[in-house]
Amino acid sequence: MGRRYFGTDGVRGKVGEAPITPDFVLRLGYAAGKVLAGSAAASGPRPAVLIGKDTRISGYMLEASLEAGLSAAGIDVMLAGPMTTPGIAYLTRALRLAAGVVISASHNPYYDNGIKFFSADGNKLPDEVETQIEEQLELPLDCAPSEQLGRARRLNDAGGRYIEFCKSTFPQAFNLRGLKLVIDCANGAAYDIAPHVFHELGADVIPIGVSPNGFNINDGVGATAPDALVRAVRANHADLGIALDGDADRLQVVDAQGRLYNGDELLYVLVKDRIATDGKVEGAVGTLMTNLAVEQALDGLGVQFVRANVGDRYVLEQLRERGWQLGAEGSGHILSLDRHTTGDGIVSALLVLAAMKRSGQTLGALLDGVKLFPQKLINVRIAQGADWKGNAAIQQSIASAEAELKGKGRVLIRASGTEPVLRVMVEAREERDAVYYAEAIAGGVKRSIA
């Protein structure tokens, strides 16, 4: 059977609508417990699963449902409370647990939420394991005998453990003294974590987006709304600004001049730094959306570049397959597999700062000569399951744009894996061409199926 619930980043949707309902999440917890840890329950000590969440109001409800489902499957539960997605990945591995679960919809608004899983080694679940969970969901919900039910307890030092891990990824020879940093936590999971990391390494920290109320996650702040960071950097005459998203697996950086650097550019900076320290980087992985200018710049460094499907899980798959370490998405998911098993906004920011320290250069100087091709991205909301690939009018508008842009740009159309949206992206040497053809295609989609 095909996957019905899992997208590119777990199960996600609007709270109160299938599948993000208390009854489904309870069944999901039970099914995941049976698949991820059922065999361990029969052959050894009772397995345990760690649950963390971001700051959405719905997190309380979904946490309770997951806990009940896992307990019914005979799995012990540890509750981390508000914790970043990469923090749960780290703690799951460090505490030798059977699995980790994050309740978060990442960069989405507060009224969405989702469930994503990490295996015992801190990696996102492969597609085949998610398929097994979906198959288990089709079976009746059962309950272990009372003497075999799972217990629950709170992991009180989760934040402190993770803060120390983040700090350990920054070179011992360096510190951040003398730097004024604005840290934007998006009113999300990192609100009581990220400021401490940078402060304890010596920086003068100005935190914003650190007053979550259950409804303001990603609302006008964070990596998906970097204007707030740009304003704060300028107003405070800061050296640098760091923006995370709601679950802190994305990163955007702003320099003292208010210039924004995305994941494509930061990947180039990290590759360049790794060459300076290790002498060579065999290859790096981006996505179908990665700016062509970055691919060309990496080629100039003698670094092979491979494009994966959009989604950090697919970047990760390519890195593992090739034995490489560095990959990224333009949205700010950055992977450095010798530092962490998954994308981590805080750790990535520390790697960027270390590159600047080592080189003695600003971000702008590190990216000298890398001029991004203009890209225009338009998100068009469509009906769930709409057949955009089979629509003749849409395909004609795409073909027409590709013919006009041949040799001077490219077109990428893809359905979001996390929401009913068609992403229309056009990249061209001239900004006016990118805007014109993106709007033409998006208009055709709206007229045809939106």
TrEMBL record:
Keyword Isomerase: yes
Coiled coil: none
Signal peptide interval: none
Gene3D superfamilies with a match to the protein in the record: Alpha-D-Glucose-1,6-Bisphosphate, subunit A, domain 3, Alpha-D-phosphohexomutase, C-terminal domain
Modified how: Activated by phosphorylation.
Highest taxon, organism lineage: Bacteria
Residue positions where Phosphoserine is found in the record: 106
Alpha-D-phosphohexomutase C-terminal domain sequence ranges: 377-442
Any Gene Ontology CC annotation: cytosol
The record's free-text note on cofactor binding: Binds 1 Mg(2+) ion per subunit.
Enzyme Commission numbers on file: 5.4.2.10
Top class in the EC scheme: isomerase
Catalytic site positions: 106
Catalytic activity: alpha-D-glucosamine 1-phosphate = D-glucosamine 6-phosphate
A molecular function (GO) term: phosphomannomutase activity
Keyword Ubl conjugation attributed: no
Keyword list, A-Z: Isomerase, Magnesium, Metal-binding, Phosphoprotein
Pfam short name (any one): PGM_PMM_IV
Gene Ontology terms describing biological process: carbohydrate metabolic process; peptidoglycan biosynthetic process; UDP-N-acetylglucosamine biosynthetic process
InterPro entries reported in the protein's UniProt record: A-D-PHexomutase_a/b/a-I (IPR005844), A-D-PHexomutase_a/b/a-I/II/III (IPR016055), A-D-PHexomutase_a/b/a-II (IPR005845), A-D-PHexomutase_a/b/a-III (IPR005846), A-D-PHexomutase_C (IPR005843), A-D-PHexomutase_C_sf (IPR036900), A-D-PHexomutase_CS (IPR016066), Alpha-D-phosphohexomutase_SF (IPR005841)
Co-factor(s): Mg(2+)
Domain Alpha-D-phosphohexomutase alpha/beta/alpha: 3-138, 161-258, 262-368
Entry similarity comment: Belongs to the phosphohexose mutase family.
Role summary: Catalyzes the conversion of glucosamine-6-phosphate to glucosamine-1-phosphate.
Stored NCBIfam families: glmM, PRK10887.1
Name assigned to this protein: Phosphoglucosamine mutase
Gene behind this protein: glmM
